[in-house]
C-alpha cells in the first residue's frame, strides 16, 4: 500500500514535469505576438526591425542559452512566479486568486449535489429496476445528458431572468458569498451544470450498482440477515465506488476544462473560465498558460487521489505490489 | 445416519423443522410468466439431510432460495404455498422478521465460492458481520468466535488469515470460509446449493466431510441441492427428485437408490457412470416452462408414457413403499408398477 502510493506520487511529479516541459517547448517554438508587433512598429517608424528584435530578446532573456531559459522557466513555475498579465495589469497568480473563488462558488455546490443526487437516484434505480421511478429517472437522465449546457443556460436565463424576473440577469461579483442575492444568481448556473452531471452519474451508478445488487456476495449478505440499507451502503456502494470515483474525477475535470468556459461566459461569472477565455481573446500568453496549467494540475492531483482511493476501496488493486 | 432416521420417524407426529407445501414460484420474463417451481411439497426434519436432486432448470435453486425469500422479487413472484419453520410460515413474515431468521436459524451456502465473498472486506470482517447481525457482541468477542469457526472449518493459521482478503484464498478455502460464516449463529438448517460443484474433486470430498462433521457437531439439518448422485449417496437421509418444477419422487436414500420408482429417477441413474451398465443420456429437453404441456412433465421423454400421461395434471405422489412416493400413473389405481424397470436399476447408496 505504502509502496503503491509512493509510486503513484512519484508518477504525478514526473507527469507534471513532462507537462511543464512540453508547454515550455511549445511556447518556445510559437511565434511571439508581442515581438511581431514591436518589429512591425519599428519598421513602420523607419527603425531597424532586427535591432528591435535583439533589444526585445535581450530584455526578456531570450538570447541566453536554451538550457538556462528552460531552467529559469522551471524555477519560476515551481516558485509560483508565473509572470505578469498585461491585459489585467496584475501578476498572473493574483488574477487566478481573484477568479478562483467565483469558480468555487458554483463548483463546490456542483460537486455536493452531483454526488448526493447522482448516487442516491442511481442506487434507488438499481434496487427498483424497471419500476416507475426507474423509468422516470432514466428519462430525466437522458434529457439532462442530451441537452447542451450553454443552450440550456441561455433558455433558463431568458425564461427566469427576463420573463419571470426571478433571478438577476447580470452577475454581481460584489454580492457577499453567503447571501440570498448570491444564492439567487448562482441557482441557474449550478442547475444547468448539475443536470448533465447528475444524469451521467445516475446512469453509471445504476449500471455499476446493478452488477453488485445481483452479485452472489450480496445474496450471501442477505442470507446472513443483513439489512437492505446496510447491504446497499457496504456491499453494493463500496465496490461500485471504484469505477464511480473515476467518473467523478473525469466529470470534475470536464467542469474545469470545458463547462466552466461556457457557463461563466453565458452567466457573466468572473471565474477561471472567463479569465481564461478573456486571456485567449487578448492574447495574454502568461495568463493563458497559467489558467491552462491550473486545469492540468487539477487533472494530475485528481488522478493521484483517484489512484489512492482505488486501493482504499478495493484491496485487490495493490495486490501485485506486495 | 441411522440415528438421523430414528429421529425422523420419532418426530413424524410432531412438527417438522421445515415444511414446504404447494410452493409455486413464477418469474416475469419477456415471454410472459415462467413457472419455475410448481406445487412443490417436502419436509426437512431436525438433524437430517435432505437432498433436492434434478437437472439444471428443474427448480432446485429457486425452491431453496424462496424459503427465506432470497430470490429477487420482482421479477420473481410467490404464487402460492407455504414454507413453515417450526410451524411458522416464513413466506408471510415481514421483511424484518424474516431478516431475524436468515443466518440465525436458516443459513445458506452458495454454489460459487469465488463470488460468494465481498472482495472489499477481510474474511474476518465478513464472519464478524454474520455474528453481529444477530447478536449484540463486542468486536473482540465476535473475533474470538470467528477464529473458533475458522479453526473448525479447517483454515490453517486462522489468527493470521483472519485479516486476509478473499482473493488471498483458494476456491476450496473460500467455500470453507462461507461455511464458517453460515455457522456463525448456529443455525438449525443449512441450505447448501451445489456447494461442491465449482470445486475440484479432492476438495469436493474434503468439503463433504466437513459438512458431515459439522452437521453432527451442531445437530443441524441440511437441505442439500445437487445434481451429483454420488454426493446424494454420501450424505443424504432422504431424497426429493425435481423435474421441471414438479416433485417426481420422494423417499429415503436407500429406497430411491435401491428401487428408483419414477421413470425419470430410473433414467437419472442410467446417466451415472460406473454402474456396470452402458451409459445413457436422456433424449429430449425440459418442457417449456412458459407453457408446460398437460399431464406429466416428463411424459414427452418417458419411454413408458401412455395416453393418460399426456392429459390432465401432473399425477399426485402415489405411495410406492414405506416412505417412498412417486408422481407416476403406474403407481396409481389400476396402474402396473411392474411394467416399469422397477428394481433393475439397483443402486447401492454406499457404492
Automatic annotation (TrEMBL), chain A:
The chain crosses the membrane at residues 9-29, 108-127, 139-163, 256-275, 287-305. It is a multi-pass membrane protein. Residues 100-306 form the ABC transmembrane type-1 domain. InterPro entries: MetI-like, MetI-like_sf. Keywords: Cell membrane, Membrane, Transmembrane, Transmembrane helix, Transport. The keyword Transmembrane helix applies. Coiled coil: none annotated. One of its GO terms (biological process) is transmembrane transport. SUPFAM superfamilies: MetI-like. GO terms for cellular component: plasma membrane. Its main location: membrane. It comes from the Archaea. Belongs to the binding-protein-dependent transport system permease family. This is Peptide ABC transporter permease. It is found in: Cell membrane. It comes from Haloarcula pellucida.
Automatic annotation (TrEMBL), chain B:
GO terms for biological process: peptide transport. It is found in: Cell membrane. One of its GO terms (molecular function) is ATP binding. One of its GO terms (cellular component) is plasma membrane. Its EC number is 7.2.2.11. It catalyses: Ni(2+)(out) + ATP + H2O = Ni(2+)(in) + ADP + phosphate + H(+). This is Nickel import system ATP-binding protein NikD. It comes from Haloarcula pellucida.
Amino acid at each position: 500500500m505504502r509502496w503503491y502510493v509512493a509510486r503513484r506520487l512519484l508518477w504525478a511529479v514526473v507527469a507534471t514535469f513532462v507537462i511543464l516541459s512540453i508547454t515550455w517547448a511549445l511556447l518556445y517554438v510559437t511565434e511571439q505576438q508581442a515581438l511581431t508587433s514591436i518589429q512591425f512598429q519599428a519598421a513602420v517608424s523607419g527603425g531597424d526591425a532586427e535591432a528591435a528584435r535583439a533589444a526585445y530578446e535581450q530584455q526578456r532573456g531570450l538570447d541566453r542559452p536554451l538550457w538556462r531559459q528552460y531552467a529559469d522557466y522551471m524555477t519560476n513555475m515551481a516558485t509560483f512566479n508565473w509572470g505578469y498579465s498585461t491585459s489585467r495589469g496584475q501578476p498572473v497568480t493574483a488574477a487566478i486568486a481573484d477568479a478562483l473563488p467565483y469558480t468555487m462558488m458554483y463548483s463546490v455546490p456542483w460537486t455536493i449535489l452531483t454526488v448526493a443526487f447522482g448516487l442516491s437516484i442511481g442506487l434507488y434505480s438499481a434496487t427498483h429496476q424497471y419500476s416507475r421511478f426507474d423509468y422516470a429517472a432514466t428519462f430525466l437522465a437522458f434529457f439532462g445528458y442530451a441537452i447542451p449546457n450553454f443552450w440550456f443556460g441561455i433558455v433558463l436565463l431568458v425564461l427566469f431572468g427576463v420573463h419571470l424576473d426571478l433571478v438577476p440577469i447580470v452577475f454581481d461579483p460584489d454580492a457577499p458569498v453567503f447571501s440570498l442575492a448570491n444564492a439567487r444568481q448562482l441557482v441557474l448556473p449550478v442547475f444547468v451544470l448539475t443536470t448533465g452531471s447528475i444524469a451521467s452519474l445516475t446512469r453509471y451508478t445504476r449500471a455499476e450498482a446493478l452488477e453488485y445488487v445481483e452479485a452472489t456476495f450480496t445474496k450471501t449478505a442477505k442470507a446472513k440477515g443483513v439489512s437492505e440499507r446496510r447491504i446497499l451502503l457496504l456491499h453494493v456502494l463500496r465496490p461500485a465506488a471504484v469505477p464511480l470515483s473515476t467518473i467523478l474525477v473525469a466529470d470534475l475535470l470536464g467542469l474545469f476544462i470545458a463547462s466552466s468556459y461556457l457557463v461563466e461566459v453565458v452567466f457573466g461569472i468572473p471565474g477561471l473560465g472567463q479569465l481564461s477565455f478573456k486571456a485567449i481573446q487578448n492574447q495574454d500568453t502568461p495568463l493563458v498558460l497559467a489558467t491552462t496549467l491550473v486545469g492540468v494540475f487539477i487533472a494530475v492531483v485528481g488522478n493521484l487521489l483517484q489512484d489512492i482511493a482505488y486501493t482504499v476501496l478495493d484491496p485487490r488493486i495493490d495486490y501485485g505490489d506486495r | 445416519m441411522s440415528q438421523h432416521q430414528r429421529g425422523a420417524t420419532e418426530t413424524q407426529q410432531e412438527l417438522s423443522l421445515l415444511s414446504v407445501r404447494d410452493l409455486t414460484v413464477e418469474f416475469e420474463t419477456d415471454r410472459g410468466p415462467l413457472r419455475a417451481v410448481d406445487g412443490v411439497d417436502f419436509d426437512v426434519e431436525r438433524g437430517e439431510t435432505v437432498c433436492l436432486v434434478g437437472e439444471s432448470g428443474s427448480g432446485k435453486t429457486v425452491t431453496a432460495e424462496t424459503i427465506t425469500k432470497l430470490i429477487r422479487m420482482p421479477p420473481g413472484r410467490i404464487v402460492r404455498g407455504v414454507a413453515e419453520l417450526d410451524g411458522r410460515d416464513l413466506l408471510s413474515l415481514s421483511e424484518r422478521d424474516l431478516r431475524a431468521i436468515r443466518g440465525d436459524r436458516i443459513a445458506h451456502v452458495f454454489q460459487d465460492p469465488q463470488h460468494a465473498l465481498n472482495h472489499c472486506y477481510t474474511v474476518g470482517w465478513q464472519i464478524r458481520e454474520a455474528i453481529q447481525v444477530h447478536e449484540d457482541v463486542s468486536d473482540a468477542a465476535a473475533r474470538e468466535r470467528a477464529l473458533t469457526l475458522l479453526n473448525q472449518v479447517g483454515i490453517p493459521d486462522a489468527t493470521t488469515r483472519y485479516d486476509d482478503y478473499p482473493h488471498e484464498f483458494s476456491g476450496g478455502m473460500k467455500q470453507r470460509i462461507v461455511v464458517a460464516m453460515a455457522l456463525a449463529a448456529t443455525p438449525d438448517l443449512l441450505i447448501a446449493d451445489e456447494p461442491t460443484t465449482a470445486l475440484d474433486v479432492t476438495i469436493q470430498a474434503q468439503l463433504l466431510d466437513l459438512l458431515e462433521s459439522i452437521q453432527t457437531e451442531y445437530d443441524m439439518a441440511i437441505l442439500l441441492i445437487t445434481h451429483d448422485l454420488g454426493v446424494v449417496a454420501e450424505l443424504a437421509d432422504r431424497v426429493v427428485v425435481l423435474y421441471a418444477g414438479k416433485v417426481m419422487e420422494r423417499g429415503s436414500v436407500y429406497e430411491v437408490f435401491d428401487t428408483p420408482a419414477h421413470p425419470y429417477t430410473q433414467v437419472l441413474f442410467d446417466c451415472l457412470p460406473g454402474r456396470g451398465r452402458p451409459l445413457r443420456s436422456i433424449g429430449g429437453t425440459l418442457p417449456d416452462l412458459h407453457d408446460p404441456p398437460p399431464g406429466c412433465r416428463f411424459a414427452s421423454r418417458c419411454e413408458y408414457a401412455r395416453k393418460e400421461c399426456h392429459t390432465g395434471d401432473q399425477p399426485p405422489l402415489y405411495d410406492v413403499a414405506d416412505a417412498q412416493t412417486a408422481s407416476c400413473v403406474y403407481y396409481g389405481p389400476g396402474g402396473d408398477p411392474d411394467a416399469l424397470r422397477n428394481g433393475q436399476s439397483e443402486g447401492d447408496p454406499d457404492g
